[in-house]
Amino acid sequence: MNNEAVIVESVGQAGFLNQVIRMIQKAIRKNLIPGIAIQILALALVGSYYFFPVVTAFWNNIADFKSGSGLIFAMISTATFGGLIPFLYMLLTGRSGHRQLTANLAFVILYWAYRGGEVELFYQLQAWMFGDKCTVPVVIKKVMMDQFVYNPIWAT
Fold it and tell me: According to the model, what pLDDT value does residue 101 have?
């Protein structure tokens, strides 16, 4: 390879790297405030669980309901938080389009309900395969199965 080709190639790589850096900076600017807001909300939820007995009781009741309802809780919660709430957000911000709203809403709710049931069954399969104890070896096996089997082969 001659010197001119090396210079052209390095300029092309530098241009590509600069483009990637600009894209990352744009994504950070766009998502920084929503990301911080979500983290604050998560901290508030966790903190309220430990510091307010009423909140502790509420979340314990939710956990008891989940334990006793099988797939139903997974399907309802995933349909609500993965389908309904994002759909309403997109509708309120004008990002959903205004055609066939009922059909689109039905689709996202049914799709996310199905996915919630699927994930719950996958977690039950992992508990059967690896155990349901919260130990480092069990968690590592479940994470490896989730990230390197379920996600690339089935979930995507």
Answer: 85
Chain segment 4-43, per-residue pLDDT in tens:
554 445 556 778 889 999 999 999 998 899 899 999 999 9
Tokens 């082969």 -> residue: 153
How far, in Å, CA of 82 to CA of 86, rounded?
A: 7
pTM, whole model, 2 decimals? Answer: 0.70
